[in-house]
Amino acid sequence: MTAPEPAHPALDLDDAVHQKTRLALLTVLDEAGQADFPYLRKVLNLTDGNLGRHLDVLAQQGLVEITKGYAGRRPRTWAAITPKGEAALAAEMSVLAALLERFRNRS
């Protein structure tokens, strides 16, 4: 009897994290620690609605924390990556690294 083949690493990609905008958001927040809504909108070239929806998905998963407040008199929304978000991003990057390794080592 032959041993079953191990599951393909692509099956370990997290749907909440892997979507390109959410992966980009987590990456930017990991680099910055925290960023306000206008900065994220500009750096990722997103509409208000699109950015808000993706941040909501990440917040519902506990991967980012949303804080509302003021910068001077102007209302602001900030997003920060959570420890759970950092772990999810690290796990996603590990899967991507494994996929890249398989790609580079193909015959």
TrEMBL record:
Residues 22-99 form the Winged helix DNA-binding domain. Keywords: DNA-binding. InterPro entries: WH-like_DNA-bd_sf, WH_DNA-bd_dom, WH_DNA-bd_sf. Pfam families: HTH_34. GO terms for molecular function: DNA binding. This is DNA-binding MarR family transcriptional regulator. It comes from Catenuloplanes niger. The lineage of its organism: Bacteria, Bacillati, Actinomycetota, Actinomycetes, Micromonosporales.
